[in-house]
# Entry
Amino acid sequence: MFDSLVGDVALRHPQADKTMLKWSTDRNMWVRRVAIDHQLLRKSATNTELLAQVIENNLGQDEFFINKAIGWALRDYSKTNPEWVRDFIEHHRSELAPLSIREASKYL
# Structure
């Protein structure tokens, strides 16, 4: 719920992108998770550069909830732009957790 609230504010105020990038490297895992998930359900309004950077900032994690969030974010966007998600997965396959790949690939 918090991520959708943050996402709604960020969509209306693009200057929040800088905050999301900062949050994506926060020490608190839950803050990072909000940064990863804040663009859920945006469809064609998804900022793919921001999505990629936020996810890349969290690759190589052992944290279940971060890896699950990465997968959810990619899976959600795959409904709009499956080619972008396929390319992202292929480019980062060695860094993505199996959980993230499994979640992201659900609709591919």
